[in-house]
Amino acid sequence: MGYRNCIFDLYGTLVDIHTDERSPRLWVRMAEVYRRNGAAYRPGELRDAYFRLVRELEGGAPPRQAAHEAHPEIQIGQVFQRLYREKGAEADQALADRTGLAFRRHSTEYLRLYDGAAELLHALRSRGRGVWLLSNAQSLFTRRELERLGLNGLFDGIYLSSDYGCKKPDPRFFRFLLQERGIDPETAVMVGNDGACDIEGARAVGLSTIYVRSSLSPREPDPRADFVLDITELGRVKSLIMGRGAADKRV
């Protein structure tokens, strides 16, 4: 029988990425970007102001394991815009977005698909499954990265937390997708690499779950997922979703 709808996390599940937002070289480069656009910062000053504004916009959110009100999501473009304004420089949204993209480019060490990720999505869609993306991610960064990786056309719908003002494991974020698309949770499975955000969040709204442990997974015991895999076993996800491989279930 299997599942009719498959909901995927992105980073750490389909995509391997490494960013370093504390790199001194990053902040030297970003200080130059701001200087060219009329905002004079020293690199360390800019770094500290960036993280301060992120914390302010997040409202000092408690850890992710807390109640759903503890999981707000910000629009990262607002941070880059406010950094200009704190130095008295005018910055429209276009400039803020260009600055944000420069930040992402200079802070990313690598971005690549896990082996078999694209093939998995192609196979599921060719077999008539609904394929959805539900990711804690900034739209400003992620939509460009989906295009770069050739994933744009492989989802029936893309849900990014920055577009919805909340993020996993907040049940509201899952319900935005389920309700907008008319998906019965009993027909769907969540595939993700984070026990709290992906697995517990999905279980809270009645979804089945497949946990894929990757290099980006938090250090945590195996969560209460219906299936537990290693990222090297990503190819097995198709058989689990299609209704085969149930004997391999681990809880």
Notes on the protein architecture:
This protein is of the alpha/beta class and 251 residues long. The strands form 2 sheets. A 6-stranded parallel beta sheet has the order 5-4-1-6-7-8, with helices on both faces. Strands 2-3 form a two-stranded antiparallel sheet. The protein is built from 9 helices and 8 strands. It has helices spanning 24-36, 43-58, 76-85, 93-107, 117-126, 139-149, 171-181, 195-204, 236-242, and strands at 5-8, 15-19, 108-113, 130-135, 157-160, 188-192, 208-213, 227-230. The chain is elongated and about 60 Å long. α1 runs antiparallel to α4, α2 (43-58) packs across α3 and α3 (76-85) packs across α4.
Q: What profile does the largest beta sheet have? A: 6 strands, parallel
The average pLDDT is: 92
Taking the alpha carbons of the first and last residues, their distance comes to 20 Å
Order of helices and strands: EEHHHHEHEHEHEHEEH
Q: Trace the largest sheet across and list its strands.
A: 5-4-1-6-7-8
Number of helices: 9
Portion in helices: 40-55%
Tertiary shape: elongated
Low-confidence stretches: 62-70, 245-251
Gyration radius, in Å: 19 Å
Count of distinct strands: 8
Q: What class, by secondary structure content?
A: alpha/beta
Name the beta content range. 15-25%
Short description:
This protein has helices at residues 24-36, 43-58, 76-85, 93-107, 117-126, 139-149, 171-181, 195-204, 236-242; strands spanning 5-8, 15-19, 108-113, 130-135, 157-160, 188-192, 208-213, 227-230. With 251 residues, the protein is α/β, with parallel strands linked by helices.
